[in-house]
Design a protein that fits this description.
single chain, 727 residues, binds zinc ion, disordered N terminus
């Protein structure tokens, strides 16, 4: 029997909480993946007690605190918030509260300007307008327009409009006889979406002298609906700040690629860093970009290059600007706050929770919605611990710093504790933004629940969603199905197997754990209309009037986050499903073949298909055998422990220490991200196929096949030792 140390008092409290919760919620007899029937009953009781703690009012208070002032990385306010979180966690009963300091290369603006010199003079404001209704917008600490890690520079040159700034856009310019060499390229955000750091690298490769990225109303402004402060979309002066780091090559402190920036660490010179941009770049509101676009007199751009402004969009002609970017790029301390609740039985198996703290401005959505949900989660878990309900495994929580710059805090922390994490980390549960959308415009079904997870954990996530209530009044599971149907305009509900997004890109703090350390990850959040990303209007007013006025999505997120954490922390057998994992891999592989129309004579993937089929079988057989024995209670604790170790090893076996070709830091054979941050499955194989490098593709398919085979062997041997010594 596991040591849940249920005191008489805690049982009393539990019973009380249960009478309030359970009747509208879950039957205690409902099985849970990975739990014996008896332990499932206890787990449901713990979860009911847990779910009754988080409160919308408290979430609102946390949110107000975190969004009260701008708090970018390395600012005084962000450092104050690190201490504030550490204090709160101590008061909530968390253990080993520690501040980890990393000295990293940071970047902030000294002075920034943009003027049009021809054909008519114009000076860009590079500022966002204040609104009386939202006093926060008058805060003098709000920055103007800048990009983190932009190069400094002073450039006067002709402007060329290059649509989204993706490689195919430059191809079209070339076809029209237009070169961007030595010129200033003006591009818009997101059509189709690509990370701004990819636009910067592309402009640099094309020989541009500087890059301007503006927010077109067609993407996140008035074309989409009502703008701030009347609606969720961006007003004319909103500026999408952000970093343009090449962290898809290597994230973290650019001067410590692959190792931690702990005090005394070796740093390379910034000039040697592969992740630092070489040309100056600036974000613009459409109000500042419009005079530049409007005054061009060259050939008109094609229809799909036109945005939402009532002007002719042209390639180039007549417009010259002077851009001056002076950045202070210097070493600054970043702080990761860390705390834990030590596990009662398996303290050396960790479930890690995390959210970043730093924001470009107030961070109403990004990240303080996630921070508010996290603080309610830590409050609830702390309270369970105070009542004597300690989890079996250790739960660790981290408040990351500098995520916005290069996923820096989580990357440095992950690199510092790499060896330990590879052995101990069961899973990392990331929440960046918990509510990235407006409940007020979402319609009756509400915001979309939009998690992503490694495929092996998708089934347990779906199962947990059945026991959480969504703000729509339905279970989160039912609400998830309804919004998925709505969003995909499907006429039938989705299969459970299609609910979780199992394709995982980069762009948040899960990256180091998945791609570098080979640990399983889950990202959680709600989505909807949102057009003020990284602008000053992403603030408390936006959230409390437009986004989640009742703060009930914040709390729903706290609940699902907590349930997944508690199940991973308390399960008898870790609820990984490698049969399902293999079926997802088969799907990835089929998509790769179809998208690239791979010819058999170039590359045969038959053998890889066959190996994945064997993995699927081995995973399924083990899963079913284990479920059967858990039900009958016939497994000994020693056997269970041995099996859990083997299950954890499966995830580690997807790592290739050599890394993917050209990006050695990214070591996962199944998951990586493209330079655009988009998800990329079988990264080494896919990139080789896309380059039509068939020899490399063959090698990569071989590597993958070996890893699949290794895991099939492991699952088979896990099953035979499981079956052998019954009891
Ligand atoms: Zn974020």
């Amino acid at each position: 029997m596991r040591n849940l140390t249920l005191s008489f008092l805690s049982l009393l409290i539990l019973t009380f909480a249960l009478s309030a919760q359970l009747k509208e919620n879950v039957s205690p007899a409902t099985p849970i993946l990975g739990f014996s029937p008896a332990h499932a009953v206890t787990e449901h009781q713990i979860e009911s007690a847990f779910q009754s703690i988080p409160s919308p009012d408290k979430a609102r208070q946390w949110h107000r605190t975190f969004t009260a002032e701008p708090h970018p990385a390395a600012s005084e306010r962000n450092n104050y918030l690190a201490d504030f979180i550490a204090d709160a966690w101590r008061k909530q009963g968390w253990e080993d509260v520690t501040l980890r300091r990393y000295d990293v290369l940071h970047s902030r603006p000294r002075s920034i300007s943009l003027e049009m010199t021809e054909p008519v003079p114009f000076t860009a404001s590079l500022r966002e307008d204040a609104y009386d209704i939202d006093p926060d917008t008058k805060n003098p600490a709000v920055s103007g327009a800048f990009f983190g890690y932009s190069a400094s520079g002073d450039v006067t040159a002709e402007v060329v409009y290059a649509h989204s700034g993706n490689p195919e856009d430059y191809d079209l310019l070339r076809k029209n006889g237009i070169s961007v060499r030595g010129k200033i390229v003006l591009v818009r955000y997101s059509n189709p979406y690509s990370y701004r750091g990819f636009k910067a690298l592309t402009a640099e490769r094309e020989g541009a002298a500087a890059l301007l990225i503006y927010s077109d109303p067609a993407e996140d402004g008035s074309t989409r609906g009502k703008v701030f402060p009347d609606g969720p979309w961006g007003p004319e002066s909103h500026i999408q700040r952000g970093a343009i780091t090449y962290d898809y090559i290597v994230p973290g402190d650019p001067t410590t690629p692959g190792w931690a920036s702990v005090p005394g660490a070796r740093h390379i010179a910034p000039e040697e860093a592969r992740s630092l941009p070489k040309i100056p770049a600036l974000p613009l509101s459409w109000r500042d970009a419009r005079p530049l676009l409007e005054n061009m007199n060259g050939p008109e751009a094609p229809k799909d290059w036109r945005g939402g402004l009532p002007i002719a969009y042209r390639f180039s002609g007549a417009v010259k600007v002077h851009v001056k970017v002076d950045m202070d790029t210097s070493m600054q301390p970043y702080t990761v706050v860390e705390a834990r609740i030590r596990g009662s039985e398996l303290p050396d198996e960790w479930v890690l929770l995390g959210n970043h703290r730093d924001a470009w401005v107030f961070g109403g959505v990004d990240p303080s919605s996630g921070t508010a949900s996290m603080m309610e989660l830590t409050r609830a878990l702390g309270e369970l611990k105070q009542r004597g309900l300690r989890p079996r495994r250790t739960i660790v929580v981290c408040s990351w710093d500098g995520e916005e710059y290069a996923l820096t805090g989580s990357t440095e922390w992950g690199e510092q504790f790499a060896d330990e994490l590879k052995k101990k980390l069961v899973a990392y549960l990331n929440v960046d933004e918990s509510v990235v959308g407006a409940a007020t415009t979402a319609g009756p079904e509400g915001l979309s629940f939009s998690p992503s997870a490694v495929a092996s954990l998708a089934p347990m996530l779906v199962e947990a969603s059945k026991d959480v209530r969504a703000p729509s009044g339905k279970s989160l599971y039912e609400s998830w199905r309804a919004t998925t149907m709505r969003d995909s305009k499907a006429s039938t509900p989705p299969l459970d197997s299609a609910l979780v997004e199992t394709r995982i890109g980069s762009g948040s703090d899960h990256t180091v754990f998945l791609n570098h350390l080979g640990r399983p990850v889950i990202n959680l959040g709600f989505e909807g209309d949102y057009g003020v990303y990284h602008s000053m209007y992403d603030d408390h007013y936006w959230m409390s009037h437009i986004g989640d006025p009742a703060f009930e999505y914040h709390v729903a997120l706290t609940r699902i986050w907590g349930l997944v954490a508690l199940r991973l922390a308390n399960a008898d057998i870790l609820p990984f499903d490698f049969g399902f994992n293999a079926s997802a891999l088969e799907q990835f592989l089929r998509e790769l073949e179809q998208t690239n129309k791979i010819e058999q004579r170039r590359l045969s993937l038959k053998r890889l298909h066959a190996r994945i089929a064997e993995l699927e079988k081995a995973g399924g057989v083990l899963r079913d055998a284990v479920a059967r024995d858990l039900l009958s209670g016939s497994a000994s604790p020693e056997k269970i422990q041995r099996l859990n170790e083997q299950l954890l090893q499966v995830e580690s076996n997807w790592l290739d220490p050599a890394g993917i070709p050209g990006r050695p830091w990214f070591q996962h054979l199944l998951y990586s991200s493209r330079y655009t941050y988009a998800h990329l499955e079988f990264p080494g194989l896919t990139e080789a196929v896309e380059k039509q490098d068939w020899e490399l593709a063959g090698q990569q398919a071989g590597l993958l096949g070996k890893a699949v085979e290794k895991n099939t062997r492991l699952l088979k041997s896990a099953r035979s030792s499981w079956e052998k010594n019954k009891r």
